[in-house]
């Protein structure tokens, strides 16, 4: 029996979908030109572009609209790290050997917008050399940054920062020429607030040799700078693929969105053509046929999972679960990679998010300011400033020859570390915020050139069962040595005279008594294994590449060994670009949407397109 809450939720979903304009999917067997599985960071842009080109498109999404279930928590930038159970898959890793056998929570968006409805919204491009490395590895020079630039621009529009609402010493650097012709749906701008701790860390970074990068827009990212974010303007709310792309193109009559609908199996014919998807809504299975192609955009975990339960993957795995083998590819779910982050925390003489925890009245006041004026600390995700660098030479002296060899494989402009400033206590990412009246802040480092690789597989032949996620982070000696050096680097920042005036006492976390005054490598490593976490940038589980070189898809996202099936999401990256990866996902989604449309010309023509010609 449905509860009153469920009845209300069903009514609200029906009402909201009707006012949003596009078609709401009906639970019955149907046929479309394209069936897209996953209404996330990539799935919505791809589906939108195909529908705008005249194709009849279905997008399947397991979740609902985050505005319906958690509107304040989901849309307010400052709440990005708060638990949001209504819109999250609640995945966790298998015990991680490199992290003291801990299981790490892995937030993933279960909502329209996918993880773009859950992540921290930082938007910046990776370095030029990373995209050249991508192009060289996959054998396709259209993946260089100059060639991809048109797709970055196609996806976004930019709003300059409002200097009147930011501190005078917090002026961001950006390159307006990069956005000059950008008129895309995704809103990119800066928060109407600047974290005071960031300006002090900026000075401390400069004192130890990390200089101003100028901007993070043009492929030269070594150095420090303020981050752009995907915020709607002027509302200063979360800019997800749903609140930007889908709202911009909400009047497409040939786009159908199925919410609360799980794709459970890809259907193939005898010639190994993908011909549709079996979906399920409230326990009711139905079939969505695809005249042209099926496109997986379910993310780095569920795109490979759906391939596996549908018969594409390692033969031994498929046979173990009594799944009929459609095509044997041992690389499905392999090569998983993520950045790893960690960092110290300090007490400061500045206002941070600690005040929200200790003062409910203040929390109410800042929310009223945010709601009425679209300004103040709630417009910021907290991580408004950061830096990228290669570990300096003096800290490389203790690296082993194999570590130096691993790092030498990356381009000269490819950072090994990112630093992010946070006006909060990050700690070990699971301990509660201190409530002792002090104000807390952190500096975190993330490994940008990780060598460790993991994998993903299935625990059963059902999409209802979470996959087995093993990023295997922090297991390579190279990653460990770079992490130790990064930790020492952050301590150099906090020891700088440029920041001393705002610190209260010595390092609060982990504290020198934990790691040791001498910062011996083993002492730091013991702490890192207990405190570090994944960066939630999982990728490469259906990676792109040349045939016979560990690839699942080709450079057009087509799944090797079968036909009329593509993957378009973070899983196809051959490696993680050293950046916050949403910018890359949007650009590649735009690029591959163009590719799908070009491939269909002269091959597929819909009744809707024929009507447009009349």
UniProtKB/TrEMBL annotation:
Signal sequence range: 1-21
SUPFAM superfamilies in UniProt: FAD-linked reductases, C-terminal domain, FAD/NAD(P)-binding domain
Active-site residues (renumbered): 537, 580
Keywords: FAD, Flavoprotein, Glycoprotein, Signal
Short name of one Pfam family: GMC_oxred_N
Positions annotated to bind substrate: 535
Family listed: Belongs to the GMC oxidoreductase family.
Protein name: GMC oxidoreductase
GO biological process, one term: secondary metabolite biosynthetic process
Binding positions (FAD): 115
Alphabetical list of PROSITE patterns matching this protein: GMC_OXRED_2
Organism: Periconia macrospinosa
Taxonomy, superkingdom: Eukaryota
Cofactor(s) this protein requires: FAD
One GO MF term: oxidoreductase activity, acting on CH-OH group of donors
Glucose-methanol-choline oxidoreductase N-terminal domain span: 299-313
């Amino acid at each position: 029996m449905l509860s009153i809450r469920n009845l209300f939720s069903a009514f609200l979903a029906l009402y909201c979908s009707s006012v949003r304009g596009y078609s709401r999917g009906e639970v019955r067997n149907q046929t479309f030109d394209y069936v897209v599985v996953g209404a996330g960071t990539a799935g919505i842009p791809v589906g939108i572009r195909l529908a705008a080109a005249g194709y009849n498109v279905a997008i399947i999404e397991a979740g609902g609209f985050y505005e319906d279930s958690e509107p304040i928590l989901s849309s307010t930038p400052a709440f990005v790290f708060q638990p949001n159970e209504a819109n999250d898959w609640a995945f966790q890793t298998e015990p991680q050997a490199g992290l003291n056998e801990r299981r790490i929570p892995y937030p993933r968006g279960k909502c329209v917008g996918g993880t773009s409805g859950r992540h921290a919204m930082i938007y910046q491009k990776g370095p030029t050399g990373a995209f050249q490395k991508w192009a060289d590895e996959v054998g396709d020079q259209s993946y260089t940054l100059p060639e991809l630039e048109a797709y970055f621009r196609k996806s976004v529009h930019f709003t300059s920062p409002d200097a009147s609402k930011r501190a005078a010493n917090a002026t961001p650097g950006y390159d307006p020429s990069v956005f000059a012709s950008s008129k895309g749906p995704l809103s990119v701008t800066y928060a109407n607030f600047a974290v005071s701790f960031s300006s002090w860390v900026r000075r401390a970074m400069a004192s130890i040799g990390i200089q101003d990068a100028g901007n993070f827009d043009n492929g030269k990212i070594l150095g420090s700078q303020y981050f752009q974010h995907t915020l709607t303007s002027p509302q200063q709310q979360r800019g997800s693929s749903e609140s930007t792309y889908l709202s911009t193109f909400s009047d497409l009559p040939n786009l159908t969105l199925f919410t609360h609908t799980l794709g459970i199996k890809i259907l193939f014919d005898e010639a190994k053509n993908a011909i549709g998807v079996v979906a399920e809504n409230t326990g009711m299975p139905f079939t969505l046929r695809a005249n042209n192609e099926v496109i997986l955009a379910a993310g780095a975990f569920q795109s490979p999972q759906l391939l596996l339960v549908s018969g594409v993957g390692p033969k031994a795995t498929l046979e173990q679960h009594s799944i009929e083998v459609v095509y044997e590819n041992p690389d499905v779910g392999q090569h998983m990679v993520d950045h790893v982050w960690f960092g110290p925390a300090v007490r400061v003489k500045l206002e941070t998010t600690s005040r929200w925890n200790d003062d409910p009245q203040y929390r109410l006041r800042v929310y009223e300011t945010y709601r009425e004026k679209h300004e103040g600390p709630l417009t910021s995700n907290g991580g408004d400033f950061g830096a990228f660098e290669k570990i300096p030479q003096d800290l490389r002296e203790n690296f082993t020859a194999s570590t130096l060899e691993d790092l030498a494989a990356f381009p000269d402009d490819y950072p090994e570390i990112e630093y992010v400033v946070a006006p909060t206590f990050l700690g070990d990412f699971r301990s509660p915020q201190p409530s002792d009246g002090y104000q807390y802040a952190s500096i975190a480092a993330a490994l940008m050139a990780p060598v460790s690789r993991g994998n993903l597989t299935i625990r059963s032949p059902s999409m209802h069962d979470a996959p087995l996620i093993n990023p295997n982070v922090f297991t390579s000696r190279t990653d460990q040595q770079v992490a130790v050096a990064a930790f020492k680097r952050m301590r150099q920042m906090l020891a700088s005279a440029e920041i001393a005036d705002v610190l209260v006492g010595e390092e609060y976390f982990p504290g020198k008594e934990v790691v040791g005054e001498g910062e011996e490598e083993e002492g730091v490593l013991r702490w890192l294994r207990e405190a570090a976490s994944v960066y939630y940038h999982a990728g490469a589980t259906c990676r792109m590449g040349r045939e016979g070189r560990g690839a699942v898809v080709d450079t057009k996202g087509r799944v090797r060994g079968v036909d009329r099936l593509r993957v378009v999401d973070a899983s196809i990256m051959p490696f993680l670009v050293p950046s916050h990866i949403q910018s890359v996902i949007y650009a590649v989604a735009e690029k591959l949407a163009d590719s799908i449309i070009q491939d269909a010309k002269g091959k597929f023509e819909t009744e809707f397109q024929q009507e447009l010609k009349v």
